[in-house]
Amino acid sequence: QVQLVESGGGLVQAGGSLMLSCAASGNIFSTVAMGWYRQAPGKQRELVAAFTSGGSTNYADSVKGRFTISRDNAKNTVYLHMNSLKPEDTAVYYCGADIIATMTFNRYWGQGTRVTVSS
Questions:
Q1: What is the pLDDT of residues 94-109, one digit of tens each?
Q2: Which residues of 72-99 are buried (b: 16+ CB within 10 A; e: fewer)?
């Protein structure tokens, strides 16, 4: 019943900016943690930025100072503001959330939104 839908991906030149959005919907009782991951061709999925269960933020070293994660609890949405994009940021970006639904607790994934950064 829980769904995560990402949006905001696209083509951008190196040095440009994008903002990704992830909207959660369904029978959500509580969102414990929520964040962004990415997967480039031939590589494993990796954490980009996340809100932890304690409410603090965690960023990959490769994006610190360039990316910012934010959220709007009223809209049940999390954002990823990406600045100074580099070609190595090219990947499919996924929204992941640890959610308590109806008597369950699971990790849910969105379908992903593709980000391509040209040289």
A1: 999 998 887 788 999 9
A2: eeeebbbbbebeebeeebbbbbbbbbbb
